[in-house]
């Protein structure tokens, strides 16, 4: 098969899953970096659901070293594997975002592959891809910093991170792919990079592959506290009862989620159920919150107190480090409940069917 046809078919294969993969020049270039020709041929027949090695072997009767090729793809960062105790090994093809777009960066290494991917990762912020990621139910949502709520007793159960972290069986920290890629491009910011949190089976896989480090519940909470004091925004997967990852994002480090939401497509992430509100009596118009807001949602000049644009505000709470304690998060009028895993999948499936029928 001609290379262009092969990568076109690989793109279609990836587009047939819930995450979507539109025909975009940058995405096509990324596929070529991450999937050498022989591995692209194999990838065409690997599902995105866990599949036993014996089942995959039936798909490739002509390939006698399939496991070796699959493990090469694992090491390159395009295939996930897992083996539960007493069970057969399973493999699945990774998605782009949350998968092979980021595996070159999670380990914090400076490799030729990471250098080649770094500018592509920046240019991956496109309207078409962000729409595919947002359709049905956005992949991620903003989690407010608890201390920033006006009434901390009013916190909604799915916004409480600590109990969810305490309930996790396995935790890992990796490098922030966005800031590491920006550093490799010479465009990095001053924020720390060792704070990309992962949980459960995928976290185990990352530790196994040496692209993340296992951490305790206490260290996870310490990392979140440090992220808060750096002015980073907590962005978690948008599912109730299922914690997979928490990014700690900024717009100065060219974060995929925040910069796409700010500059390209606001719908790529779900805002928290809170919005910032300043108090006219105590605000001194110092402008500190305006400077800190990653979404440029606050304006001070020409107002009686810091003015928040509720449409731009994502309810992160980064602005609430105010000497006068004059700005806090208050609940929005309409509360949006994150879907559970089944609801999330069915909402995305509906949107996917709609997309395919258009
Ligand atoms: S809300 Fe606080 S940080 Fe913002 S302008 Fe007023 S006093 Fe300054
Ligand atoms: S105003 Fe800005 S910093 Fe404050 S909660 Fe909204 S988005 Fe976050």
Structure overview:
The protein is built from 16 helices and 14 strands. The protein is 40% helix and 14% strand. The protein has a 7-stranded mixed β-sheet with strand order 7-5-6-9-8-4-10. A 3-stranded antiparallel β-sheet has the order 1-3-2. Strands 11-14 form a two-stranded antiparallel ribbon. The protein folds into 3 domains: 3-93, Orthogonal Bundle (Arc Repressor Mutant, subunit A), CATH 1.10.10; 97-271 and 336-358, no CATH class; 274-334, Alpha-Beta Plaits, CATH 3.30.70.20. The chain has helices at residues 3-15, 25-34, 37-43, 53-59, 66-76, 96-100, 103-106, 112-123, 127-134, 161-166, 177-184, 200-208, 217-230, 256-263, 288-292, 341-357, and strands at 51-52, 79-82, 90-93, 140-143, 171-174, 196-199, 213-214, 233-237, 245-249, 269-270, 274-278, 298-299, 307-308, 327-331. Helix 1 (3-15) runs parallel beside helix 3, helix 2 (25-34) packs antiparallel against helix 8 (112-123) and helix 8 crosses helix 11.
Quick synopsis:
With 358 residues, this protein is an alpha+beta fold. The chain is 40% helix and 14% strand.
């Amino acid at each position: 098969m001609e290379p262009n046809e092969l990568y076109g078919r690989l793109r279609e294969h990836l587009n047939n899953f819930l995450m979507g993969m539109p025909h975009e020049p940058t995405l096509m270039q990324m596929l070529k970096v991450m999937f050498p020709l022989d591995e692209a041929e194999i990838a065409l027949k690997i599902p995105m659901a866990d599949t036993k090695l014996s089942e995959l072997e039936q798909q490739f009767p002509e390939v006698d070293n399939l496991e070796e090729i699959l493990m090469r793809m694992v090491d390159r960062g395009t295939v996930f594997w897992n083996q539960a105790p007493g069970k057969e090994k399973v493999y699945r093809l990774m998605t782009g975002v949350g998968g092979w777009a980021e595996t070159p960066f999670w380990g914090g290494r400076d490799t030729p592959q990471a250098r080649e991917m770094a500018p592509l990762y920046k240019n991956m912020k496109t309207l078409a891809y962000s729409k595919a990621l947002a359709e049905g139910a956005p992949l991620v949502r903003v989690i407010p910093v608890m201390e920033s709520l006006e009434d901390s007793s009013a916190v909604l159960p799915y916004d409480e991170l600590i109990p969810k972290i305490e309930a996790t069986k396995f935790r890992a920290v990796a490098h922030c792919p966005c800031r590491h890629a920006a550093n490799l491009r010479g465009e990095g910011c001053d924020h720390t990079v060792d704070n990309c949190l992962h949980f459960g089976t995928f976290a185990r896989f990352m530790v196994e592959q040496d692209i993340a480090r296992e951490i305790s519940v206490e260290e996870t909470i310490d990392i979140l506290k440090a992220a808060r004091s750096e002015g980073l925004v907590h962005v978690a997967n948008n599912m109730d009862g299922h914690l997979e990852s928490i990014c700690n994002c900024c717009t100065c480090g060219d974060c995929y989620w925040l910069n796409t939401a700010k500059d390209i497509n606001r719908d790529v992430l779900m805002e928290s159920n809170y919005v910032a509100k300043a108090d006219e009596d105590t605000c001194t118009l110092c402008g500190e919150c305006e400077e800190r807001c990653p979404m440029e949602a606050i304006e001070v000049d020409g107002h009686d107190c810091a003015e928040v644009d509720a449409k731009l505000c994502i309810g992160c709470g980064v602005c609430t480090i105010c000497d006068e304690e004059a700005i806090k998060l208050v609940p929005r009028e309409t509360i949006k409940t994150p879907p559970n895993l089944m609801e999330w999948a069915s909402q995305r499936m509906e949107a996917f069917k709609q997309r395919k029928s258009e």
